[in-house]
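One-letter codes give the sequence; the fold follows as C-alpha cells. Both lines appear below.
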Amino acid sequence: MLGTRGVLAILAGIVMTFGVVALRTGRKPLGLWLLTAGFGTASLWSGLSIFWARDNASMLSAESHLMLGTMAGAGTIYYGVLAREAVSESE
C-alpha cells in the first residue's frame, strides 16, 4: 500500500519533471515555480521520513533524511529566488 511518504515522493518527482520540461520549452517562470514546488514537496517528504526513520526500520538514518531535507530546502529557496527574478524580468 502506498503511504503518505510515497505519494509525496511521486508528486515531487512529477512536479520537478514538469518543471524541467517547462524550462526546456521556454516557459522559464512556470518552470522555476514548478521546481520550487517540487523541492518544497521533497522537503515535506524528508520531514516525514525523519520521524519515520526514528521509529521504524529504514534504509537511511534519520540524520541522512535530515541532510536530504536540508538540500531540498536549499533547492526550494534557490528556485524560488530565481522564479521571483524571472517574473520581475518578464514584467
